Amino acid sequence: MKNFKTIVLSNQEISPGYYRMKILAPGFGERAKPGQFIMFRVQTSLPPLLRRPFGIFRTGFLPPHCEGLAPREYLEILYKVVGRGTGIMCSLHEGDRVEVLGPLGRGFDPGDPETEKILVGGGIGLVPLLMLAEELVRSNKVRLLMGGRTRDDILAVTEFERLGVETYVSTDDGSLGEEGLVTQVLVRELAKHPRATVYACGPMPMIEAVRQVCAERDVPLQVSLEALMACGVGACLGCVVKGAGHSEKDPRYLCTCKEGPVFWAEQLDWSKLGEEPGYCEGCQS
Amino acid sequence: MSEYRKKTATKENRPNLAVEIAGIKLKNPVMPASGTFGYGEEYASYLDLENLGAIVTKGLSLKPKAGNATPRVAETVSGMLNAIGLQNVGVEGFIQYKLPFLRELNTPVIANFFGNTLEEYGEVARALSEIPEIAGVELNISCPNVKQGGIVFGTDPRAAAEVVSLVRKNLRKPLIAKLTPNVTDITVIARAVEEAGADAISCINTVTGMAVDVKTRRPRLANTTGGLSGPAIRPIAVRMVHQVVQAVSIPVIGIGGIMRAEDALEFLIVGATAVQVGTANFVDPGAMATIVEGLEQFCIDEGIADIRELIGSLRH
To answer: Which helix (H) or strand (E) holds A222?
Structure first.
């Protein structure tokens, strides 16, 4: 974990309302684990006041500007423009100064190596799954079930295909891939491969539906949650979720930023979680 | 300030930054505001905790407290609303899990605390008296986000005096009373807690506020209202610290939207002996280290040998 001042290397719209940004980040790849996130700040502006959390999409190297120089290490994020903060971010250009805190949080646990691996992504929730796929494909068969409202919400699937991941796309309106919800694909895949571990990230209603499907079939599940957070390091307690066995007398809150953002499904108290607003779609940041 | 370094620090011109609050010796006047710095350990990898004037803990209660439902935070223009609801590990949990780390530091620890009832304030004060590693306590009578306790005591001068004198009886440590700005006249409360035995005053806590999500037409906080902090409230805080300093003779700790050294200086100049930094810690975990450096640089640039020369130096 550390905080560093750096610059934007590129910032492009990849689908209507979705952007991918490469940020110069020497030494970052060694420290970042699949499922971790960063807190991002536009350095020279006061609004937005707070940093914004973004899942790490991947890390890598760009060739140097001229021969003889070292390659430029970057970290890459994908984001959806939903409010003021991301509205400012999408107008950043190469060379603009930004500040990054991270990598933060607890990422994915690769889980039982003997099982098939099924990744479930909903819209921008796809982000933390790429680095996980990179790690899992070394030893396992990996499938990605990618869902969205329309074709515009289906992002970066080719990046997964390049790794050898088998991908299944579904959209609510049928504009790309199969028509319907990603969970119906999951039900079908789990029928074919009952010995699997599932890793999910996306809007809260999707996560809740995936949890039910997995719970009914006794399939181990990890979820990556999104939350409104101020600090990102476990101090403000703004981003808490209820842990399993939580009660008023015996509070068992977990910080999404520190104990998460990735949790095993059984770590959490799901009674109210499914009713949460679903920050992926709803927050105004 | 760091952009315009005019002079470099040398042995000869290094200013004294140390101040004293109610017998607690601080290396410099900068400490975190309760609730924005966890129990210190959360920030250990981002700044040297021994370079802070003090560490102020998250507000402690007798028993662990669950806090409010989520969402608990919302950003507004130049500020943030929070309604955490005083989630904490309780005094026992603090001693068991958090104190071992703080004990090793060469920095005074100030324990912030609250009670759900008057009696509970007394009990927590007694329990904290028994902990030798705690240099002083900060009494929270100003949290706007819980139904019982907190602000009920902080908005009425008689109730405030009552809780302060009860705590005073049960406590063998310096006592700082933290005041709310959500009153008609903060000087009335300030005088009441001074007379009741407070050794110092810290102000201000957050300003009650509210924000609405226009699409869902729901409040953006589960608690409906919350406490506004950040640069948006700083002018209010500077004004109130200025008023309180005129009204009492005990030291005052200024709090409210401090992001940079210049902001801290405003509070010192109107008469605060020290300052607390809150929301800035969320924006930049190293903020307080930068502020301490900035204060030193300001003194060097202005030829000030001792930061205490600045305290209450407001010109009219």
So the answer is: strand A221-224
Interface mutation target, options A231, A258, A276, chain B, most CBs of B under 10 Å: A231
CA distances from B211 to A163, B110, B278 (A): 45, 32, 20
Sign of the CA dihedral B167, B168, B174, B176?
Answer: positive
Q: Note whether A236 contacts B35, CB cutoff 8 Å.
A: yes
Tens of pLDDT along A225-234? Answer: 988 889 999 9
Q: Which tokens is B6 given?
A: 């005019």
Q: Residue B66: which of A3, A51, A248 has the nearest Cβ?
A: A248
> Pairing state of beta strands B274-277 and B30-32?
parallel
Would you say B94 and B39 are in contact if contact means Cβ atoms under 8 Å apart? yes
How many other CB atoms are found less than 10 A from the CB of residue A122?
A: 28
A24 is a domain residue = yes
Per-chain mean pLDDT for chain A: 90
Instruction: Return d(Cα A171, Cα B160) in angstroms, integer.
Output: 60
Higher-confidence position of A276 and B70: B70
Record the pTM: 0.91
Question: Which residue, chain included where needed, has tokens 């959490």?
Answer: A268
Q: Under an 8 A CB cutoff, do B282 and A1 touch? A: no
Label each residue of chain B as H, E or C.
Answer: CHHHCCCCCCCCCCCECCEEECCEEECCCEEECCCCCCCCHHHCCCCCHHHCCCEECCCECCCCECCCCCCCEEEECCEEEECCCCCECHHHHHHHHHHHHHHCCCCCEEEEECCCCHHHHHHHHHHHHCCCCEEEEEEECCCCCCCCCCHHHHCCHHHHHHHHHHHHHHCCCCEEEECCCCCCCHHHHHHHHHHCCCCEEEECCCEEEECEECCCCEECCCCCEEEEECHHHHHHHHHHHHHHHHHCCCCEEEECCCCCHHHHHHHHHHCCCEEEECHHHHHCCCHHHHHHHHHHHHHHHHCCCEHHHCCCCCCC
Q: Dihedral, CA atoms, A160, A162, A164, A168, nearest 10 degrees?
A: 40
Is A84 a domain residue? yes
Give the whole-angstrom CA distance, residue A265 versus residue A215: 9
CATH number, domain of A29, equals: 2.40.30.10
- Contact residues, B window 159-198, toward A, CB-based 8 Å cutoff: none
Residue A49 in any domain: the answer is yes
Let me know: does B116 contact B148? Beta carbons within 8 Å: yes
Q: Active-site positions of B?
A: 143
Range of the domain at A91: 2-104
pLDDT digits (tens, 9 = 90+) for B138-176: 999 877 666 555 677 889 999 999 999 999 999 999 999
Domains in chain B, CATH or no CATH each: 2-309 (3.20.20.70)
Report pLDDT for B179.
96
In a domain, residue A138? The reply is no
Q: pLDDT for B265-287, tens place per residue?
A: 999 999 999 999 999 999 999 99
Binary contact (B230, A49; C-beta < 8 A): yes
The total of structural domains in chain A comes to 1
Phi-psi group of B74: left, alpha or beta (phi > 0 → left; psi -120 to 50 → alpha; rest → beta)? beta
Here the ipTM equals 0.87
